[in-house]
Every structure is written in structure tokens, then in C-alpha cells.
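Journal club prep — side note

Before the paper discussion, L.F. wants everyone to see what a predicted structure for a comparable chain looks like in C-alpha cell form. Sequence:
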Amino acid sequence: MPVINPPSKRRWGLGHWRVVSLVAVHVLMIAHATQWLITGTTVSPIEPSESMETLQTGAINAGFVFFAVALLITLIFGRFVCGWACHFVAYQDLSRWLLGKCGIHPKPLRSRLLIFVPLGMALYMFVWPSAYRVYKAWRGDDPRVSTFFPEWSNGFTTQHFWETFPGWVFAILSVGIAGFAVVYFLGAKGFCTYACPYGGFFGIADRFAPLRVRVSDACDHTGVCTTACSSNVDVAGEVLRYGMVVSPGCMKCGDCIRSCPNTALTWSVGKPAILQHAKPPAAEKPAAMFRMWEELLLLALFLFFLLSWRGLYGGFPFLMSAGMSAIMAYVTLLGVQLLYRRDVTLQTRALRAASGVTPFGKLYGVLTCVLVLFTAYSALVQYHRFMGNRWFDRIVVGEIAREPEFDPQRDLDAETRAARDIAAEHYAKYLKWGLRDTVDVQFRMAWVDLLRGDRDAAERQVRAALVDQPHWANLHYLLGIVLRADGRNEEAIVAYREALAEAPHMREAAQQLGITLIRAGRYDEAIEHYQTVTQDCPDDAGAFYHLGALRVDRGQVVAGVADLEHAIEVQPDFPDAQYQLGLALLQLQKIDDAIEHLETAIRLSPQMAPAHYNLAVACFMKGDLPAALTHVRDSLKLAPDDVQAQRFHDMLAQQLNQTP
């Protein structure tokens, strides 16, 4: 077998080069963030979790490319990217080194079931969303999901670099938990082993890598390599049984190679781990750390803690929660073992000995009970939030909810009202029992209050949320909706402008601002606003429609026609634009063109009574009275109280009766 990199006898070795590599990674991270702070635009985060955005929206970003390249490298060389380029590995190694300087050398947790958690998390993050999208597209009952796969687009640059990262508090906590806490309770690189979702895929890819740590006949089985390994791999046992390291937990750090006194370990190319079988006679495997029922309990506890803590009160991001949950599951299992085992220890501290539970063990047991009880309480709070979100997502309402004349009893069907009320019930319990309010729940509760017709309560919820998140554009946008629905157009205009100040390309806020300016009678400002929107967003059919209608209404008919034609070019099935263009062409005496667009509007929206009426007018202007009478009758069927249409109908009927 060809040797790739024999162990170095020099003082400057693999460990030092790996430190240089990990430091360089952090220098690049700082440079990346600094460049964004200076210029406002940068390459999208080079983080594997960004692949979720690619799979959901089709925006190919730097994180997706990095993850794909890292998987390809792992297929060939093993988990070098993990050991030499991962910032979380750096935190764990630094924590392990500092704990060692303090005389603390944690023993690793060795679980047979918890080791599958990273793969489960990886499937949840990267496979489940795509599979669910395919299922929704196959069912065809969700208009938001019409294709099996999203349309690919360019997402390599961003102006919102920090948007997908936690705040500074949770960033620091994540480093502390993924570093010192995980290393102390779970062992070196315990986060990689039991909580890293990317490791779920890297571990599988590593099994196919031909480059591995292999052993020669010079090995005298001292076990020094296992002691030196910072990845919790039983190197000595694996090379004895397989002739190489087969564990997917091997991060290719080179610790075992550097420590071997006989230089018996090397990196070399050969048969991958997935094809290697134990050498006869197979050496006995080390005894399991836990019984199988304890393993099952450990896994159940992990899921309990993860579901209870993840996103609690708008904090605790997924990866941090996973690391916390692995620690708390192990800690709780030790607390359970106090009830029946004679010898229970936490690292070097005895919790229970032959003489009984130690004083430290008693304190440990009390604290464990407090942890479990508080988590159960948090689980109840999380349940109400989850159920509230589930029912909130079933609420489907139209534009009418934004209008002052909105009547929940009249404008919402029974199913929507039921979903609204159930969501309100769960959100109310969350806000009552939670230790603090969270902006996302306040945001949804404000919508629910608006849909219940309680605009005062909706406004209170939004303003309370704005105290915590004054820069969240969606909150300003929702405040504008509440104020406009309450008839307070001037205040709503201010709220919409603040939303656009935070998110200049927020089309919903831009649309509502223009509509509210029109309702407030500020037509010139509305025209100026829509001109700005159309310049920035030439594919915004709604903005061109409103600009065209405004210009026609203000006497700028030719310019208005051009805007309406552009709106239809962008969105041909836009009935309102077709209708407004038909009216404008009538003013220009282009009767045939007007009829064509009015007929198209009716085809797209048969219930549009004004389109039927104005088509009747166009036919009358053309001299086709029978057609005009037919269309005005269609108009009256849809709007029988239309006095103007009734008079026109009577006039046409009278003229036709006088015709021989």
C-alpha cells in the first residue's frame, strides 16, 4: 500500500499544521463578516445549513456549494474537512486543551443509539423538506407548491449576512456549549459525535473513502494511539480487528499517527471501511457502556429535551439545542441510575458508591429533578406555541381583512373562524404561561386579533413586539395593516414607510403604501411612489397597474396606457389591468382595442360587474345596441342595485323598441 504521509519526527508536526488551518478558518470568517459590515453586500454564508435555503427556494448559495464539495472530499479522503476546517471542532479542541491544563481529562460517552442522532438530524434538515415538497406537489392541493423542485436561481451574494445566524448572546452560548460543556460531559468532539447534523452525511461518506489510517506489523498494541485520539475513536481496538481505523468518527487529525512510538500507523490508500471485515480471529469488542433499555431511554430523553428547548422563547437555535439535549439526556440518565446502580460516577466525581448515594450525588439528584421539571414545563409552553402555529397556518383570508369594512362573521367561512379561534386559544395560553413573550407569537396573535375584529388588541400586540424588535419590517407592515383597517390612513402611511426603510424591496409594504396614499387622497405622492417602485422592480405588475390607473385618473391617459400595457405584458392574466386598460382606451376612442381588453377582463373574472357595464358602453359607442343591451343585462345580474347601469339599460331598451 502506498504511504501518503508518514509520521513526522520533527517538533513541528501535524498538530501544529492543524492549528494553523483552524486559525486560518477563523481569520477568513472575520474577514468575511468585516467585508459585509463595510460594503453591505457579501458572499452568502459559507455554512452547510444554508443548503436548506437552496433546497427550499432553489437559490444556489455558497453554503450549498461548500457542503457539496466537502462531501466529495470526504468520499475520497475521509473527514479531513471536519478535522481541519470546522470552527466547532476548533472550539472543542481548544476546550479539551484548556481542561487538560486544569488537570481535567473527561471520559468519552459511548452510546450505541445516540450516535445515530446526527444522521436523523441531517435527514430532518436536508431530506425531509424536499420530500414534503414533492408530496405537496403530487397532491396538488397547495397553490404555493406547484412543482416537485424549486426553480434554480443565483443566491451567491446577500445583503442580510447575519439574518440566518443567532444573536450574539446565543452565539457565545453555542460556543460555550459546543466547547466546554460538551467536551466535559460527552468527551472530546462529543458535539461532532452526537449533535452535528452535517456529520450524519459526512460519517456515511467517510465509510467509502479509500484514504484511511492503517497499521503495519510494527504495532506492539500499547494503546497509546487510543489515548491520544481526540475524536473518541478506539484506534488500538480497530486496527487490531480491521487493520485500519474504520470508525466514521475519525476526523483525520493525525493524533494517533503522531503519538505512535513505533511509527506503525500511517495514512494510506486501500480498501474502504465499508468493504473491510474483521480479521479472524476477531478480537472481542469493548463492553457496552449502557444496557439496551438505558440506550433507548437516553435516546428518548434526547428527543424530549430537544423538542422542549429548541426555539424556546425565540432563542436556542437548532444546533445549540442539540448539544444541550445530548448533555442533559446523559445527565438525566445518570440521575436515573442513582435509583438502582451501586456505582455511579460523573467523570471522576462519585454520585453513588457501595455505601449509598454521596452528598454530591444527592445534590446532583435534586438538580436533575429540577432540570426535568423545568423542561416539562417548557415542553407545555412549546406545545401551545406549536399548536397555535399549526392552526394559524390553516387560516386563509383575502385582501378584505385589511379593509375598514371587514366583518369576521360575514367575510370568513366557518372553517377559517374555527382555525382562528383555536390558534387564539393556544397563543393566549402560551403568552400567559410563558416566562417571556416572543415576537413571532405576538406577530401571529396580532393577526388573529385582527381577524377577530379586535383592532385595538392587534395594535397592542404589534406595538409590544416592536419594543423588542424595532427593525423587523414585517411588524411595521402589520401595524400599517391594522391602522389602515381602523381607518387611520395617515398613521398607516408612516408604518408602511418604516417597513420599507427596514426592507426596501418588500413588495407587500410598497403595494399597501401606494393604496393607502390613494385612499388618503395623496395622489401625487402615490404616483411618485409607484414610479420609484417600477424603476426598482420592473417585473412588479401590480405597481405598473396602480401607476397606470392613477395616471389615467389624473388625465395622463397616454402614459397610463403604457404603464397598463407593461403590467399586462408582465402578467397577462391580470383582470384588473385588462379592465383599466379597456377604460383608458375608451377615453382615447380606440373602441375595438377597448372591447378586446374588456372581454379579456370578463373572461379572467366573470363576476366583474363594472367590466360588463363598460363593455356595454363600448358596444354602444360602436353602434352595436343589441350587444350593449346584452352586456348591461349581465352587469345588472351581478349588481342589481347599480342605478347607473339600470338607467343605461332602460335607455337601450327604449331605443331598441323604437327600432323597426
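L.F.'s comment for the group: Confidence is low (pLDDT under 50) at residues 1-10. Keep this in mind when we get to the figures.
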